[in-house]
Amino acid sequence: MEVHIGKPARTRNGNTLPFPLVKKQAGSTLNKRQKSSLFPFFSWICGTLEKTRKTLESIRLTTKLACIRSVLATTEQRNQHRDVDIVTYYPSAERIIAIGDVHGDLQSLQSALRLSKVVGVGGEWTGGRTLVVQLGDVLDRGDQERQVLQYLEELNLQASRQGGRVVSLLGNHEVMNVELDFRYVTPVGFSAFTRKTNELEQGYYEKSVPRAYQEMIKQLPDFMKARALALRPGGPTTVRYFSKSPVVLVVGDNVFVHAGLNNEHVDFGLDEINNSTTNWLLGKADKPDILRGRFSPVWTRIYSYPNLALDSEECHELCSTLDKIPAKRMIVGHTPQSHINAACKARVWRVDTGLSTAYGGNIETLEITRKGVKVLKWKSRQANVR
Fold this sequence. Notes:
CATH architecture: 4-Layer Sandwich
Number of domains: 1
Largest sheet: 6 strands, mixed
Number of helices: 13
Shape: elongated
Helix content: 25-40%
Order of helices and strands: EEHHEEHEHEHHHHHHEEHHHEEEEE
Distance between the termini: 86 Å
Structural class: alpha/beta
Strand content: 5-15%
CATH topology: Purple Acid Phosphatase, chain A, domain 2
Strand order of the largest sheet: 3-7-8-9-11-10
């Protein structure tokens, strides 16, 4: 046996190894000193293998992330240029159910739907050809915003198989969130989006994101950024859910809008209101001026004042607006009422009862059929459950 101990070993290309070279003849055994000289060798091998493993893992992760970013960027690009058909005018439906502001409360929404006999005890659609119109403000104040959005989307799919439909309008709180105004968001409302960071970070550095929004997002606290990325114009949540939400919906002789319409809005054009808003939500255009100001379709409260007199300026504006559309009645949410009620000789119905737990109001819905208009209520306080 030939052994060289303590001498630096060299490879064929002249590199020095960090351990002595040990040569062993066949059939011989190593003594204790020779065995101990092998420890640095095995230590070097283990270290090299660990470094190699980490390098390969880093390469694999980098490649995977690059693929994900590529796919997400492609999806984002498609989202920016695809068209979304917004229907403003529907033919008259046999039965219409109107539900007010939900504000992130899935249980109250499902209770309202059960009251209206359009879903079963498991939340599945049983309403046949009924049209359900939810009047906006799904976001803010509650912890179940994503669950409500997903549920309404799934319920609409179920309803469409039976000839029904579930439509959620755009409310002022959706507009606020798209503009990154998060003053009414709960802590859970932020964390629910943070858990989806990989989904929501797509497109942040894309040209499709307006520079102003990039700067706004950079300045936000970290816990707000995921929500901002999701809800900005062209963001994945905005495109998926809100770009399909009309501001105004006319069904037969009924017009539905979150807050209210006036003559100026009708002159602007109801289709134009919906289309210009959709283009903004998709990130393809600036926010339309028609959505700005306290008299916009998602902000006005002129038809929600208590004790509106028939000869009031508000009622005159309402009747003139409805005649111009033309429509028989306007159904609005936005301003909480103790109960669903009508004003201006039943030409406007106010259906926001503050049914979410954020307000603790009564769970009521409005039913419209060929027989007329009816307020649906639970028969007992115990039945008015969330």
